[in-house]
Amino acid sequence: MKKIITTLLLSVSILSVDAQVDKLAGPRVGVTMVQAGSLASILRKDVSLFSDDIREEWTGSTGKYGATMSQYGWQWESRFLDGGDIVGLVEWIALVGGMEKGMFLPSVSSMVGLRTASGFEFAAGPNLSLGGIAIVIGIGKTLKFGKLNVPVNIAYVPSMNKTYHHDAEYEYFDEYDEDGNYMGGAEVETSPEYSVTHPTGARISVMVGFNLGK
Q: For residue 114, how far is the Cα from the chain centroid?
C-alpha cells in the first residue's frame, strides 16, 4: 500500500511540474458530514482528541451518532493533457475542520482527475488526516461567471477500522509480616494488554471554491 501511495505522489509531482498548461488557486469552504465512529465521537466531545479514552470500550452515546463540522482551506489546481473537450487535473487541497467546535483538524488531499468542457469533473487520490491515510473520491461542476470560476464539489472518504493497542499496566506492592517487618515487594499486573478496533466513520463533504481564470 505504501509503495502504491509513493508511486502516486511521485506521478502527481512529475505531472504538476512537467505537464502543466494552466494553474488556478483559491479558497475552499464547506461542511463535512461524518458517519458514527471515532471522528464523530471526537466532534461530539464524547471523547477527547488524543485521549486514551478512545481506546476503551465505548459506552453511552459514544460511537453511536454522527456529527458535522465546517471546513476551510485552500485549493491549488494544475491542468494538463488539454484536449479541448476534456482536460486533466491535479489538485492539492489543504483544509482545517472543526473550528466552530474549538478544534483544529487538518487534512490534505492530492487528487488526479478529468474535467469536461461543460465543467463536470471527477477526481480521486490519497487523503491524509489525523485519522491516517485514506482514499478520497470527488465529483463536481465548475460554474463560470466571466473569469470567476466557482467549483462545487462533493467528496467521499470511506470509513476505515482503526486499531488501538493498550499496553499492560503494572503496580508495585510492598509486603510486610505480622510484626510489620518489610518482606519485599512484587510487581502485579493490574490491567492486561489488549487491542480495541473502532471505525473512523465515513465522511461526505460539500465544498464551494473561488478562483480567477487567466
A: 23
Predicted TM-score (pTM) above 0.90: no
Give the three cell numbers for residue 2: 505504501
In the structure grid, which three cell numbers stand for residue 56, read together? Answer: 476503551
Pairing state between β 148-157 and 161-166: unpaired
In angstroms, the CA 84 to CA 117 distance is 7
Q: Which residue is listed with cell 479514552? A: 53
Report CA-CA distances (Å) from 33 to 69, 96, 97, 99, 201: 7, 14, 11, 15, 10
Q: What is the dihedral of CA 75, 76, 81, 85, to 10 degrees?
A: 40
The cell for 186 is: 512484587
What is the number of other CB atoms lying within 10 angstroms of the CB of residue 20? Answer: 15
Region for 155 from its dihedrals, namely left if φ exceeds 0, alpha if ψ lies in -120 to 50, beta otherwise:
beta
Find the mean pLDDT for residues 149-168.
87
- pLDDT grade, residue 162 (50/70/90)? confident
**Sign of the dihedral defined by the CA atoms of residues 63, 66, 70, 76, in that order:** positive
Share of residues in the chain with pLDDT > 90 (%): 38
